[in-house]
Structures are given as C-alpha cells and as structure tokens.
Amino acid sequence: MTPGAVPPGSASTHCDALHEALARFRGETALLDTWGRELASRLSAGARLLVAGNGGSAAQAQHLTAELVGRYREDRPAYSALALHADTSSTTAIANDYGVQAVFARQVRAHGRPDDVLMLLSTSGASPNLLTAAEEARALGLAVWSLTGPAPNPLAPASDAALCVDAPVAATVQELHLVAVHMLCEAFDAALAAEDVAVEGLTTGDVAVEGLTAGNGGEAGPSDPGGEGGRA
C-alpha cells in the first residue's frame, strides 16, 4: 500500500461516501419542504402519522414519532404519531397469527383513517411487510410517503411520493434517512410557525376592522371633531 494511502473500508472512506451522497441528497429539499407543510396541515386538522420500518429503519421511524409527539426544537403542541413496530405485543401476535408480512398492514387497518399519513422507511425499498402496508393504506385513503434506498425499487411506485436516496450502501442510506427525518421536522415546525403568524395577523386585522365599524357606524360620534358632536 502506498504510504499515507487510506485503506479500503476505513472510517475515512465511510465519511467520503457519506459526503458524496449528501451532496446529491441536497436536491431533495423541495420534497421534504412539501411533506413538512402537508404534514403540518393534516396533523393540525386532527389526522395522524403512522410510521413503519424494519431493523435500523424501525429506529428511524421511532425517532420521527418522538420528535412529533414530543418536540423537535421549540416548544409546541403534541401531535399524533405512532411507530407501528413499537407495540411489541401487537406486532408479535400479528406475526404469529397472520405472518410477518401482515405486521404493519393490520395495524394500518386498525389505526389508519382517511387523510392520515403512512410513512415507510426502507433501505432496500423491497420489504414485503412495508409493501403490504402501503397497499392497505392506499386502499383506506391514507397518503403513503416512503424513504428508500436507490431507485428503482418496488416501494417507490407503491407510494404516493418517495424520496429515494442515491447511495451505494445501506449504512449511508440510513444516515441520510436520519437527515431527512430532521429536515422534515424542520419543515413541519416552520409550517406551523407560519400558520400561527397568519392566524395572529388575521385576528389582529379583525379587531381593527371591528373597532372601525364600532366607531364609524355611518355617523360621527361625539368625540369626532369632524362630526356633529364636535361643532360649536
């Protein structure tokens, strides 16, 4: 090996792969902004986010729901979000009675309602239990969003929208899925803040119009120097 050369498989090589994939990933900002606004609109209206994944993707799914039920950065109301793998009793009972492919689909059937969102995370985009969950969700009227590895993969076309991470190894895909989770939370909170500002501005405007109406009902009041009450 050349003196000073980085051996294959080293930590530095891993960082280089992540750096290159992140540069390509930056182009997905618009989609995550759209998802954040849509999720804020739906959850504010009483809808729920369901999230599912296997293995490391299950951990990412639970990370996302924790940010919504708890908070991401600033304090805000709690929003309904469920990581479907986290109910171990239901998951294992369904797997035992109906098979592993049904573990998420049956929970979608139980918890999902029209206008809810199902988000699926998969580095391969080919997990059978996520594909059956997507099919069930779309039949029930849920929006289905997916975070996957490189396209093409079966989960992307089975979803209403998909962010396919262009990275050669699963570890890098998972790392960028975490970036996507945080970007989604950032966009979600920004959309909520913008809505709060809009509502506050509307309320302030209503008060001003109401005051104008109350003090100017077609005749000048006694305190109005231009009215009858202000003349000598």
Task: Please describe what this structure looks like.
The protein has 232 residues and is of the alpha/beta class. It has a single domain (25-194), classed as 3-Layer(aba) Sandwich (Rossmann fold), CATH 3.40.50. The protein contains eight helices and five strands; from the N terminus they run ααβαβααβαβαβα. Strands 2-1-3-4-5 form a five-stranded parallel sheet. α5 runs parallel beside α6 (128-140). The longest helix is centred in the last third of the chain and has 46 residues, at 170-215. The N and C termini lie far apart (104 Å).
Task: Indicate the proportion of strand residues.
Answer: 5-15%
Count of structural domains: 1
Strand order of the largest sheet: 2-1-3-4-5
CATH homologous group name: Glucose-6-phosphate isomerase like protein, domain 1
- Determine the CATH topology: Rossmann fold
Q: How helix-rich are the residues, as a percent range? A: 40-55%
Give the beta-strand count.
5
Contiguous helical run count = 8
Supply Rg: 25 Å
- Please tell me the overall pLDDT: 88
H/E series: HHEHEHHEHEHEH
What is the general shape?
A: globular
Report the major sheet.
Answer: 5 strands, parallel
Helices and strands: which structural class?
alpha/beta
* The CATH C-level class name: Alpha Beta
Poorly predicted ranges (pLDDT <50, ≥5 residues)? 207-232
Q: Distance N terminus to C terminus?
A: 104 Å
* CATH architecture grouping: 3-Layer(aba) Sandwich
